Amino acid sequence: MQHLESISALRAQIRDWRLAGKRIGFVPTMGNLHAGHFRLVDIARQHADVVIASIFVNPMQFGQNEDLDKYPRTLAADMQGLTAHGCAALFTPTPAIMYPHGLDVQSFVEVPKLGDLHCGASRAGHFRGVSTVVAKLFNLVQPDVACFGQKDYQQLAIIRQMVADLSFPIEIIGVPTERAADGLALSSRNGYLTAEERAKAPALYQILQQLKQQILAAAAPYRELEQNAKAALQAAGFIPDYLNISHRQTLALANDANEPKVILAAAKLGSTRLIDNLEV
Ligand SMILES: Nc1ncnc2c1ncn2[C@@H]1O[C@H](COP(=O)(O)OP(=O)(O)OP(=O)(O)O)[C@@H](O)[C@H]1O
Ligand SMILES: CC(C)(CO)[C@@H](O)C(=O)[O-]
Ligand code: BAL
């Protein structure tokens, strides 16, 4: 696997692939890779001749009091895993490369409405950071196809909207959430959990599954079901951030049984913020 650390090296590799007529697949990540990330690479390889991944812990998407500094960085292990999954190249830019003049004067991309809801309301500026870095990575890599996880459901919706609005010639593929045997969505932040917290963590997905059945049974109005589910999260040891029965495309709160729905949730277990979702 090629390890590309500069924009010039990346562009030379992309040029070589283009001259060879290769269809390029791209998997952007923040590293500390797990089976969910490697699944993205596997899927990308099904849709492209070559796959390139990126690892960049993007400071623009972290809030002041978030975990930018402690975010796990495991490059050597990540490179071994990517190589084992047939990734052809890995791009690992630094913040100085991505934001040479600093974040304060950096041009940005913002997806209105979708970026303001749910995690956008809880993490001010987060999705501006995500859409900006992904747009820049798309311009640098210029892939034909890019894979994102459904674990970050709102992020995937925002990327799809950005690609459509800005006419990126890139096919976006959403990959189902990879889960541990007990149902917990794999996430780099799961590594923050203590043993006691990890034992409680599966309750998040279990509560989403129970809520889905209640929605299908039309057990009560959606807002009442949301409140009950948040109470169940608290009883399971979580501090709920949000739990919203939403429209799959607009992500606005759903009210109608006929709408295509997704349950979106974020909750803290100790100091660890977990997210998950379940389509209804
Ligand atoms: N369990 C998973 N299943 C499928 N895709 C996933 C999973 N976890 C992460 N991804 C996807 O991998 C890509 C990179 O995500 P990222 O590097 O932030 O990993 P992460 O596990 O989501 O970390 P974090 O704990 O910061 O959320 C994103 O498209 C994300 O949706
Ligand atoms: C898409 C992404 C790599 C942009 O930094 C990040 O938000 C992530 O890892 O999901
Ligand atoms: N996959 C989530 C990235 C973040 O929380 O910044």
UniProtKB/TrEMBL annotation:
Question: Which PANTHER family does the record associate with it?
Answer: CYTIDYLATE KINASE/PANTOATE-BETA-ALANINE LIGASE (PTHR21299), PANTOATE--BETA-ALANINE LIGASE (PTHR21299:SF1)
**Pathway listed:** Cofactor biosynthesis; (R)-pantothenate biosynthesis; (R)-pantothenate from (R)-pantoate and beta-alanine: step 1/1
Q: Establish whether keyword Nucleotide-binding is in the entry.
A: yes
UniProt: beta-alanine binding residues: Q61
Task: Check the record and name the InterPro entries matching this protein.
Answer: Pantoate_ligase (IPR003721), Pantoate_ligase_C (IPR042176), Rossmann-like_a/b/a_fold (IPR014729)
What protein am I looking at?
A: Pantothenate synthetase
**Further remark:** The reaction proceeds by a bi uni uni bi ping pong mechanism.
Q: Which residues bind ATP?
A: 30-37, 149-152, 186-189
Catalytic residues, per the record, are H37 (proton donor)
Highest classification ranks of the organism:
Bacteria, Pseudomonadati, Pseudomonadota, Gammaproteobacteria, Alteromonadales
Which UniProt key words apply to this protein?
A: ATP-binding, Cytoplasm, Ligase, Nucleotide-binding, Pantothenate biosynthesis
